[in-house]
Amino acid sequence: MSAMNRDKMLVEAIQSGTVVDHIPAGKGLTILGRLQLKNAEVRLTVGLNLPSHGGGLKDLIKIDEWRFTESDAAEMALFAPRATVNIIEDYRVVRKFPIGLPERFVGVFKCPNTNCITHNEPVDTRFSVLAADDAVKLKCHYCERAFADSLFIEQGSL
Amino acid sequence: MSNPLYRRDVISIGDLSRTDLEFIVNRSAELKQSGPLPLLKDRLIASCFFEASTRTRLSFETAVQRLGGTLIGFSDSGNTSAKKGETLSDSIQMIASYADAIIMRHPQEGSARLAAEVAGVPVINGGDGANQHPTQTLLDLVSIAECQGRLDGLSVALVGDLKYGRTVHSLAQALGHFNPTFYFVSPDALVMPAYIEDSLTAMGIRFCRVGSLEEVIPMVDVLYMTRVQKERLDPTEYTHIASQFILKADMLAQARSNLRVMHPLPRVDEIHPSVDRTPFAYYFQQAENGVYARQALLSGVMNEADELSFPGGR
Lengths: 158, 314
What we know:
Chain A is α+β, with helices and mostly antiparallel strands and 158 residues long. Helix content of chain A is 20%, strand content 35%.
């Protein structure tokens, strides 16, 4: 079996759910962590360092019985902006879309500004996404500071 | 027609349009001319200072009382239920049920925005940590319009700590509506942040960095001085560097006759007292305008009319 066929089989080998494909190699575990935070019971299968179509390596995550919405997918966008999401039903890909940066993140990340009021109050954090050239920044709705995406990628859970 | 500020929260200078800013500048000049009017009669304003700030609080409270309003509130959080662990959201909802508007200052960034979201009455930000202090910028604009007779097309030098100074950031943003030319004068370690320069570029605003005060003085209408804080610079360099950003009267020999020197106060030693006696000094008039700018803001937020009128006549 060629590498490509083996890869295709991995993508389609769940009955229904979501396959997140083309995750940059090394980022799979980060995404896994965030998925488990959202749903600790979810059944996950993970492929790390799989051969990618364009050469190089990728990670891949299969999620049983959970069909991602675009907003579920958007939460992963900072970690794997070029990943694709495949929605599977009856072993077939019924919908495929790229993970895209959303306009805003609500209740997903902590504000890196430790003096931001969101750390002390029962309120969802809100960040608007400022994308210019290759740099992505997130601006806090409350403290109005903008932070490089790397600050969010390094941080743990909310 | 209702005025553009009626029932609005005033949290961040970026929320205010050119029309909003012009309304406040014009209303402020009218109120300075007219003397006290009962524009806040029968209004109860909560003055909530979760962090002490004597100058800002007195200026706001003077504005309320001069317009015939009454006040409740506190001047620091020592005796409030914040000490008992109550959230800001709960405190503000409670206060909003008593008062017609809330003026607040709080040590944490974003607190005023949060308060505005939970309060059913207008919230005016008197400073949220290192983030915003919009009424300082409003009084700066009022003072610039007053001493120059216009806001459009002025040449303005911003001097001192341009990196951390929220006052100069907000002023640059607000003046950006009026097609200024900016000159930035600061130590190398304290230059204007890239994000401010980028936003000015995007707005098509002309600006440049200038190495010394002397060089910039003949070119500008407004010389806006700020303090260079000792702790921001290497101690061994401080004396040498800071001395380059101290304004003395003899340095103003080449100034345009309409140049005015402004400063948010308190000053330490960046404006030598010799400047006080020159016709260029404007920082004390600027401080006085704080009351008129806040009167203008409060009267607009609390009264629908866009003309200066009030129940029962003067």
